Amino acid sequence: MKKQITFLFLAIFFIGMTSALDLTAGECSTIDFPNEDSVSIEIIGNSSDMEGFSWTKNLTIIEYCFDLDYKPDNFTIRWFNEEEVFVESSGGGSSGGGSRYFSKSTTTIEEDNSTDVNEIEEPEETIEDVQEEIKEPIFKSKESAYMFGLFVVFIVVAIILFIMKFIELKKAERRLENYE
Amino acid sequence: MNKKYLMFGVLGLFTIALVTAGVILYSVSQDVTVNPSFVFNGVSSASAIIAGGEMVSSEDLSVSSGTSLIIPLDISTTPVEAGITHTEEYILSASGVQGTDSMVYVSAVDAGVSTVGDLDTISWDANNLLGYASHVDVLIDTDSDGIVDDALVFEYAKVDASDCDDVADYPTGEFNTFADKGTIGATSYAWLSSGVPGYCGLPAFDDNHKTLTDWKVLDYDVIGFDFEVDNWIQDSDSDISNILINGASVEVSLKPSESLGFRVNTEFGLAVFGDYTITTEVSVR
Fold first, then answer.
1. Could you tell me the pTM of the whole model?
2. Is ipTM > 0.85 here?
């Protein structure tokens, strides 16, 4: 029983992990985006200058390509809608909570509607400019969101197990009473 | 018992989905590893003390493709100085299973040729070490869809209709193109690869065995050139260099998933002497 529950938790955890894609210079790949809105791009962990990398977005499909002479490298590419959103809660909580959405602009590479590589654009509004508007977000990262989700799952499972045990006990008591 | 596990799994996934939707609905990310399109094998640099008038050959080198695209290659060797000449010699070897071939590819674009009508001459230097001499397949597109459909084969045994299938005197050693049968020109015969293979005089073969001038009438699009050896007749080894198409030297490309072996022969003029480091690099052109 314990082994099976452990396996179930591990399976749920690994579902959320991103698997790395192996490409060869000269090849292209595609990725789905949740909406048709324009997107910006962020590159994380690259050691090259990204020369020879290009991408386009058509509706909800993003296609990205590497030139034949692209230098070997590994990194993370992140596409996001131009205004990134945070879910935040009001400070005191006494009003009953609720959520408000704020946006901040970032230093990004613009959406590329051609095969040309665009230059990096300076943000119109810096992070400091909107700092006063943004209250503390609930989740600072995807990892903390997943940890919270796992914690909730654990609590829910514990409650359900407790309820089921309680019901079994009650049934056993009734059987005992009927027997008597 | 199974319903319990199913319920736990559904609850867990539902919770994760709710949290995920709230935080990362508007972004996607992908971890990417980019591998090089080709690998360069061999010792690409060597030192030599030159006394003038010498030739130095590199070790055998090779490039192997890891991509599904044709890679135009730039093979460059230093030093670049007056009196020093570098020549790439391509190592072609076909043995084992019958029908094995080994080739070096030149694209039509690199040769400045669009159709058969643009093609006048082809020649190369050969050093035939074993078996049947090297030949060239002119890759043609017969329906103009950009895809190779067929080939015009210029080979030693068939290139001269008046001296056809002369198995007794296949050339060996160093010679140019087809040795006693010369280079490829207007009166050189080629047979259509998709046609009936056979001997000169077989009517079905002769119908597809014409001169370059005759093939120009059909004016098929040319996609590229395979300079190759194969072992349909016998295992064959040949080193070729100084490929000329319409009198001009050409650069080579690497076909998808293929390997190309080569060495670089560096000649030093009589007045060139001293310590030299000879280095070869390969890049995407």
1. 0.72
2. no
